[in-house]
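Long-time lurker. I teach an intro course on protein structure, and each term I like to show students one example going from raw sequence to a predicted 3D structure in token notation. This year I'd like something fresh instead of my usual example. Would anyone be willing to generate the tokens for the chain below so I can use it in lecture? Attribution to the forum is fine with me.
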Amino acid sequence: MAKDENTMVNNGSGYKTGTYNPNSFNVFDSGLCFLIYMLASLVANIVMNLVSRGVKSSGTQLDPNVSMLIGILLAQGSMLIVTLIFCKVRKVSYLSGGGFECRLDWKNILYGCMLVLGIMFICSSVHEQFAEDVQSFLLAGGAAAEGAETEQQGNIFVGLLLNFIIIPIVPAIVEEGMFRGVVLRGANQAGAVFAIAISSVCFTFMHGNVYQIVIQFILGLAIACVVLLTRNFLIGCIMHLANNLFSSIIAAILAGAKIASPVADKAVDAIFILIGLALLTIAVIYFVRMLLEKQKNKLLEVPEQITAEDEKKFALIKTNNAEDEYEQVNWKNVQPAKFDYAGMSYSYKGKTGIVNGKGREKPAKLIYAIGIVFAIAMIIVGMILK
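-- Reply from a regular --
Happy to contribute to a lecture. Here you go:
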């Protein structure tokens, strides 16, 4: 099966190793990864609560921004650890491989960011109103009443660090690694529609914030669609970063307009909707044309264009077990979710392994359901205990 990690293999034109990992997650891997993370998230929440209680019992008032920073690092750290463990065990590259890449593609990145910003501008006022309605409902029911009357101001420097560095960058790498790199990529075995839907639902409830359910779900759908279409994880990361960065800016503008006057509030809403419609229309037209072009080429059996940069990314796969030679397969010919090379030996970065096969779909979907129910239960319990 696996050879010594320094073994080089013969691909018929000299001894070398592949530059691209053909391995991918399957649907069972992705469901199990999500469930295990939700359990790890519960542990992280317990640790955070113990820390908070310890600080309060000592008579020290913990800065709210510092508390938020610790919470984010615990949650993102546990997510990163779970994802990396799955990558290691299943021999899958983090945010790369298995028919996907991670590279700068400025044109698609630009349109991806336009799509996200268009959604944000259009949905900002709706999202704000939804959050206010949910909060009013919870307060009327007695939940979340404690601490609702007064808000303690946090350290300004830590607040700026959170809003403009930590929150935009860290989740853009860590959350994309799990929800697009593992969940979307693995769930794609059961079909693109299922993968987009389940990854977006998991992404939404993972945040544990009932106020952001609508905007998180729409954002998850947008990123998942673009990542599957472009087969480029980096575009999803930058779309996520743009959303997190500009959400703070947009929220500040809306808050300022509301304070200024009702007229300013309505005017800003109208301007945001117009800008959002323009950005969203341009981005949707661009990606729909890309999708139609790909479908046309698929029907006509036109092979994907392979650039000079693409030629540098190839997998070495032993397609014929009867021979001791490995075939050089360009990364674009490693189709996501197809598992065409399942069970075959491959060489990557001087190491050899076996390409993963498909997972069982029914048990995977049950695991997803358990994970989602668990996430919803955590949200409800958190609202009750708040």
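Some talking points for your students: Confidence is low (pLDDT under 50) at residues 1-8, 143-150. The radius of gyration is 23 Å.
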